[in-house]
Amino acid sequence: MKTKKRSFGNNNTLIKSAERDTNFLQRVNVMDYSLLVGWDKNQRKIVYGIIDYLVQFDYLKKLEFASNSVRWNLHLRSLPPTVIPPIAYAKRLRGFVRQNFRTIRATNEGERSPE
Question: Does the keyword field hold Cytoplasm (predicted)?
């Protein structure tokens, strides 16, 4: 699957893009996707995209979420459910982006470095 390359000068661009993309995926009831971040050495840019976004939160996923939630609430599992509704999934990814990506600024030599 081909992803759209995006470069960003600061984390606000990444955050806004993640918000737009996850809002769309949430509206079409999709969950279980990933953020891929890389470095394009030819263009000297950070590139990113959301990948693996083919899982819809359908009847079976809702049933799996409910079952895992009940077991987790009864302390039969050590970890919270991995299947979560699209709203929570989008919120979790946006929180991850805000928490883990720092502003990128241009240096005097034209290189990009984290602040």
Answer: no
